[in-house]
Amino acid sequence: MKKMMKMMTVCLLILSLAACSMEPPSWAKPGHHKELKDMKIGLSVSTLDNPFFVSLKNGVLQEAKEKGMKVITADAQNDSAKQINDIEDLIQQGVDILLINPVDSAAVSSAVESANHIGIPVITLDRSADKGKVETLVASDNVKGGKMAANYIISKVGENAKVAELQGTPGASASRERGQGFDSIADKELNIVTKQTANFDRTQGMNVMENILQGHKDIQAVFAQNDEMALGAIQAIKSSGKNIIVVGFDGTDDGLKAVKQGQLSATVAQQPVLIGKEAVQAASKILKGKKVKSRIAVPLKLVKEK
Prior knowledge:
Blueprint: H1 2-22, E1 40-45, H2 51-67, E2 70-75, H3 80-92, E3 97-100, H4 109-117, E4 122-125, E5 136-139, H5 142-157, E6 162-167, H6 173-189, E7 191-197, H7 202-215, E8 221-224, H8 227-240, E9 245-250, H9 253-260, E10 266-269, H10 272-287, E11 295-297, E12 301-304
Parallel strand pairs: 1-2, 1-3, 3-4, 4-5, 5-11, 6-7, 6-8, 8-9, 9-10
Antiparallel strand pairs: 10-12
Helix pairs in contact: 2-10, 3-4, 5-6, 7-8
């Protein structure tokens, strides 16, 4: 009997310790007593090689400074595995909330779920996570932006024009949504002769466009799902001597400069600095125990050549 009681005591102790290990650390518990100025934000960015995400990061830093909050930034360098490791490191560093701009919406889900498990709130920026609890997504309406691009191309080259589509990183929600919006109109009113991935990268955009021009010599327009790919496509088109309109997406400094110079026909301009600022504003509300909308939409604007 004594032996059985001893075993039961040991079992209860093990269960008790296991339960304790599942408890979130004090800094991650809801309702903790920290002041906002003592809070740490963990920011995981898909890549800082893209000017858009540099601006997004700057928006986060500006708003956090305004509120007296510290930001720890990690650059995933467009590597999903690195991003998951980065997020784990941010958790280990004791961040109070995570702002994540996913490389891949599916791949990042495990990291989101890890944060959920220990009670760290998560906000996603520009791109969503496929799984896990996210307090809010701060992003432009990418579907609407894709439709804006399609309607602009129709206004420039007419219905049934032959169009190429340069797609972003496979698995990124922004790529899916921009393509969804564009295709919802283009499939009916334009002739999409090819869709190819260039991973939101300028050099890849140029290389892919060079290959497209070899196989499709009568293309009239290109929709690139971001400005970096659009600028790469323009380089390839220049070398070919053809006259093809190109529409980008993001409204980066380089993209807007190219529109002003008459090289890029138009760009669906986002506001990356505002996305970053809105995310920090949402984070401060969440950390104060307030509710936020499940999606915070940041307005888009079509910037076109004169």
